[in-house]
Design brief:
The protein is built from 42 helices and 9 strands. It is mainly α. It is elongated, with a radius of gyration of 35 Å. 46% of the residues are buried.
């Protein structure tokens, strides 16, 4: 033992103490600390409080300069500046010295410009994760950042990258679009050096490739059961622990290592049995770790444990051979722990069985505390009492069968534990528990309102439940209800693909159980229609709304409020399609029903006022629009507070009313408030947030603030394309802004291309006669007019005027605008009589709506006087 190279502080201290043949009690007494302190230090449970204490230890152990330096370095507690590792250092890690050294050499960036990623491969339970964890802690001071990624699934990888983005405080960490967050983290990794990235439990190499940074300036470790790396990483295959390593690890983990210091028959017998047990378990670290944990907890002897293990070997061999290739000792350890726990706390065993049927990570505590009454009568009693609940969890944690995350109030269970526990249940028992899980989830999964944060904590468990139900082809109205709630939540997060699938599954299930014309089909049809409306699939949406209304109107005794809900959805669609007269008519029907049934100050009534504000604004009824929007904002803000998405919608709509009237300062303030709420509550990449940004960009564009407008428009365009797809009509609003910016700057070719791109999207998605199409036509016509391309301008003005006169009231400012622009063209063509008639029509409209003192009204008057003067001269 002349040269000691052990890495951790505890290992070094133990080695140096034994080298001096000094007992823990003697060293503690000389140092002036409690005799248990030395044991805790050596086991890695804590570290000395000060550098002085470490130096005093070195003196008492007669360490030379090099040994003192090694002990001091090992005692350092400062980790990397950016540290995201979800596990504490394992105080029982033992052996693997050569493998750790080899891994360090392969990843040493000083030796190579680009270190090739290394993959720790081998059987489940072989210690891959623990080796990666030990490496992270042992060499933490060599890296500026250490990040841990749970790599089982795409969802877990994205979740880990989101946590990294939050730790790095990247601007994109608040993005709803996880792809943008991922790209931001990858950019950070590509532009920074000396970081360590660990992908733990990789299940799919093809999936993993997209999460590697393009520029490799740090070190990457993979842990995986896979063996073929396909050139992605240098494989380091982990074999079982050697007999010596396994012996040391087992005794250290079980707390029996110190008992071997005495040269006695007991020590010799313990060594013999420990070696046999390591041999029985084939040196598998996870099996040895579980065995040690069981022995430490129960205080049974190694001989008793080995006897229990050997008595059930054949039975366990038969059970495991049909499940997986993991060695039987792992299964045996889990079963022994579970059986012991069952004898001590039967309710805890029930909870573990339920966890075995859930998604393994991030199991919310509230699933049990709120859903307990739906799971079992015993759990109902325990989960409603915080003291009993924590006592039960403590019993489970003592067997290492479950992990509790204190900050997030969640549990996690190892997949191997889940597999073993499932084996303890018959198919019928699993089905019964799964039905109870379904009932509990449906009961506590909220209907989406506001942020839906509670839904987010339950969504992965809901998906696991739905998947389990599908495997045994289970169908029920409760499952349909859960699918419906999940779809609503996902739609609120703009996850339209998954939401559509779940809506359709819920519809199919309800139709199977209730029939296609049952009253409960109507709300589902409406919400699926809402999803299609948000996606710009208007024909599909209207068909579903009409189908829902047909069901509700044919059912005798249906409450008018239910019909009103479907009518409101239809009105929202008409408004989005630019059918303002139809929208206003339907909104008015809804308002009459809701005011009579709910009262004028109800939230639902306020939402209808919100819609009516936009309809009246689009029809040029600005005074009524203001009244509607102010009323809606007052009611919503009073009932929901100032940070609710519905309040943000009311603010946005009121801003639109001000904008259309040219009240730009008031509009900007409200746009900013709406944007702030939506960014905070819904996320940076939610479609509603993007709408606020796009509207603000349009305002800046109108004011000639092109730099600000351009930045916001580019951002909105990019975000909308990612959230909704390039074919969604909303993606054209930022394009129109960008066209106007280029137009205002005199970049006519660029402006023309952008105007045409905007028109192509709207004509294809909204139809050729939508009011938005008229707006783009008018702007493009103005461009041609400025370039003296009068024939092209004339055609577009005529189209724009026709659309606006069909869809808007005859006295509307947008019609006046097109008339004015068209008149300027006619004047430039020397067709003065036609120009004068167009100017006069524009003047009549503006005079009635905004009055004589409006600057644009005065401009029209000036042009009329000029033409009249020319006419008199002629």
């Amino acid at each position: 033992m002349d040269s000691i190279e052990i890495g951790s502080f505890g290992e070094l201290l133990r080695a140096y103490r034994k080298k001096r043949h000094m007992k823990q009690q003697v060293l503690a007494a000389q140092l002036g600390v409690h005799y248990n302190t030395i044991s805790k230090w050596e086991r890695g449970l804590c570290l000395p409080d000060s550098k002085g204490m470490v130096i005093e230890l070195a003196k008492l152990l007669w360490l030379n300069e090099r040994e003192t330096r090694l002990l001091l370095e090992a005692s350092l507690t400062a980790l990397s500046p950016y540290w995201l590792v979800p596990y504490q250092r394992n105080p029982f890690f033992a052996g693997r010295r050569e493998l750790v050294d080899k891994l360090h050499n392969l990843l040493n960036a000083k030796a190579k410009k680009v270190a090739r990623p290394c993959a720790l491969t081998g059987l489940g339970g072989i210690g891959k994760t623990q080796l990666a964890l030990e490496y992270a802690y042992r060499y933490a001071n060599e890296y500026h950042a250490v990040f841990w990624v749970a790599a089982e699934t795409q969802e877990s990888i994205l979740s880990s990258f989101l946590a990294i983005a939050n730790l790095l405080r990247l601007a994109e960490s608040e993005e709803k679009d996880q792809l943008r967050t991922l790209q931001a983290v990858l950019r950070w990794l590509s532009t920074h050096k000396e970081w360590l990235l660990i992908f733990d439990n990789v299940e799919d190499l093809a999936l993993l490739k997209q999460y590697f940074p393009t520029a490799r300036q740090g070190a990457i470790i993979l842990t995986t059961r896979l063996h073929g790396m396909e050139g992605l990483a240098y494989p380091l295959n982990l074999s079982a622990l050697s007999a010596k390593e396994g012996f040391h690890f087992l005794l250290l983990r079980s707390g029996l290592l110190d008992t071997l210091e005495a040269d006695s028959e007991y020590a010799k017998r313990t060594q013999t049995i420990a070696n046999l047990l390591v041999q029985d378990m084939e040196g598998l670290p996870l099996a040895l770790d579980q065995a040690g944990a069981y022995i430490e907890f129960t205080k049974c002897s190694l001989a008793d444990y080995r006897g229990m293990f050997q008595s059930d070997r054949i039975k366990l061999l038969n059970e495991r051979s049909e499940l997986a290739a993991h060695p039987l000792s792992v299964v045996k350890t889990f079963l022994l722990s579970f059986e012991q726990l069952t004898r001590v706390n039967a309710v805890a065993a029930e909870l573990l069985k339920i966890c075995a049927l859930l998604a393994p990570e991030a199991i919310p505590e509230e699933f049990f505390t709120q859903g307990g009454p739906h799971l079992s009568s015993q759990l109902a009693e325990v989960t409603q009492d915080p003291y009993l609940f924590n006592q039960m969890i403590g019993a489970i944690l003592s067997y290492s069968l479950l992990t509790r995350q204190q900050q997030s109030h969640t549990f996690s269970m190892h997949r191997l534990v889940q597999a073993v526990l499932r084996e303890t249940m018959s198919g019928e028992e699993q089905k019964q528990w799964q039905e109870n899980i379904l009932v509990a989830l449906e009961a506590i999964f909220p209907m989406t309102t506001g942020t839906g944060s509670d839904c987010g904590r339950l969504i992965s468990q809901a998906f696991a439940c739905v998947h389990a139900c599908s495997t045994w082809q289970y169908s029920s109205l409760i499952l349909a209800s859960l699918l419906y709630k999940m779809a609503d939540y996902l739609r609120s997060r703009a996850d339209y693909g998954q939401a559509e699938t779940l809506y359709k599954q819920a519809l199919e299930m309800r139709e199977e159980k209730l029939g296609a014309h049952h009253l409960d089909m109507a709300p589902l049809l409406c919400d699926l229609g809402n999803l299609y409306r948000e996606q710009g699939k208007y024909e599909r949406a209207e068909k579903l709304y009409q189908q829902a209304l047909e069901i509700q109107r044919q059912e005798p005794g249906v409450q008018q409020l239910k019909i009103a809900s479907s009518l409101k959805a239809l009105a929202n669609l008409y408004r989005r399609q630019g059918k303002f007269k139809q929208a206003g008519h339907v909104y008015q029907q809804v308002l009459e029903i809701q005011e009579q049934a709910l009262g004028p100050d109800h939230l639902e009534t306020a939402c209808v006022h919100n819609g009516l504000a936009i309809v009246n604004c689009n029809q040029g009824n600005y005074q009524r629009a203001e009244q509607f929007s102010q009323y809606a904002l007052r009611v919503l803000e009073g009932a929901l507070g100032s940070k609710h998405p519905d309040v943000a919608s009311a603010l946005n709509n009121q801003a639109i009313v001000y904008y259309e009237q040219g009240k730009y300062e008031q509009a900007e303030e409200l746009y900013q408030r709406s944007r702030s709420i939506r960014e905070e509550v819904l996320g940076l990449d939610h479609p509603d947030t993007i709408a606020s940004i796009s509207n603000l960009a349009g305002l800046y564009c109108e004011q000639g603030k092109y730099a600000q407008a351009e930045e916001l428009s580019l951002h909105a365009r990019s975000q909308w394309v990612q959230a909704l797809g390039a074919d969604h009509p909303d993606t054209a609003y930022p394009l129109l802004n960008l066209a106007r910016i280029a137009h205002g700057r005199g970049n006519y070719e660029q402006a023309e291309a952008l105007y045409k791109q905007t028109l192509e999207i709207w004509e294809r998605t909204l139809g050729t006669e939508h009011p938005d199409v008229a707006e783009a036509l008018n702007y493009l016509a103005n461009l041609y007019y400025q370039r003296d391309e009068y024939q092209q301008a004339e055609v577009l003005y005529q189209r724009a005027l026709f659309i606006r006169e069909v869809h808007l009231p005859p006295r509307h400012l947008l019609i006046a605008q097109t008339l004015y622009d068209f008149a300027m063209l006619r004047q430039a063509q020397s067709r003065n009589e036609e120009a004068l008639a167009l100017y006069q029509r524009a003047l009549d409209i503006r005079q009635e709506i905004v009055g004589w003192h409006d600057p644009r009204t005065n401009e029209v008057c000036k042009r009329i006087r000029i033409l009249q003067g020319k006419s008199q001269e002629e």
